[in-house]
Amino acid sequence: MGGNEAKEQAGGMRIFGIAGWSGSGKTTLIAGLLPELAARGLRVSTIKHSSHAFDIDQPGKDSHVHRAAGACEVMVSSARRWALIHENRSEPEATLEELIARMTPVDLLLVEGFKSYPHPKIEVYREANAKPLLATSDPHVVAVASDVALPALHVPRFALDDTAAIAGFIMAACGLKAA
């Protein structure tokens, strides 16, 4: 995946990133974008990178027992949802490409985090974080959602809460039309 154009994966799925420093509001922006994009008729999925250890499984649950006993993967299923838990054990962390390959194709896959990957992305920038603007050094940042004006910016800037405009921008960048 390279260049600033939204990449199309197998099945016509478009990949677009939401990147920024911790505490900038990436998850909040995605939570606002998902219903906006769904209302426009798109099927959207997400991948979120975490720099912290996390566990979606709980001690005492059967699936946790399976994992703790050495299972490489544990799938949990119910009438409402299913989840696959993969233990890396001694394997390296999966690449974004490997994770994307495991996703069911949808119209748009929003990628939260993975800020060093070369896919087109919107940077979420909050002045109070006192972190450098990624857009100045990452050619894959195609727009910025910010809580302050950024007059020297060389890409479009949106207000953090303008999910309608940001959704429209992402759809245009990905060549997607409302259904």
Describe what this molecule looks like in 3D.
With 179 residues, the protein is α/β, with parallel strands linked by helices. The protein has one domain (7-52, 93-174): Rossmann fold (3-Layer(aba) Sandwich), CATH 3.40.50.300. It is 22% helix and 23% strand. The protein is built from four helices and nine strands; from the N terminus they run E-E-H-E-H-E-E-H-E-E-E-E-H. The protein has helices spanning 26-39, 62-68, 96-102, 163-174, and strands spanning 7-8, 14-19, 44-48, 73-77, 82-86, 108-112, 121-125, 141-146, 157-159. Strands 1, 2, 3, 6, 7, 8 and 9 form a seven-stranded mixed sheet that branches. Strand 4 and strand 5 (82-86) form a beta hairpin. Helix 1 packs across helix 4 (163-174). The longest helix is centred in the first third of the chain and has 14 residues, at 26-39. The two termini are 26 Å apart.
What's the topology here?
Blueprint: E1 7-8, E2 14-19, H1 26-39, E3 44-48, H2 62-68, E4 73-77, E5 82-86, H3 96-102, E6 108-112, E7 121-125, E8 141-146, E9 157-159, H4 163-174
Parallel strand pairs: 2-6, 2-7, 3-6, 7-8, 8-9
Antiparallel strand pairs: 1-2, 4-5
Q: What is the CATH T-level topology?
A: Rossmann fold
Helix/sheet category = alpha/beta
Could you tell me the mean pLDDT? 89
Largest sheet: 7 strands, mixed
Percentage of residues in DSSP E strands: 15-25%
CATH architecture: 3-Layer(aba) Sandwich
- Going by CATH, the homologous superfamily would be P-loop containing nucleotide triphosphate hydrolases
Strand/helix succession: EEHEHEEHEEEEH
Number of helices: 4
Low-confidence stretches: none
Tell me, what's the shape? globular
Radius of gyration: 18 Å
End-to-end Cα distance: 26 Å
* Overall number of strands: 9
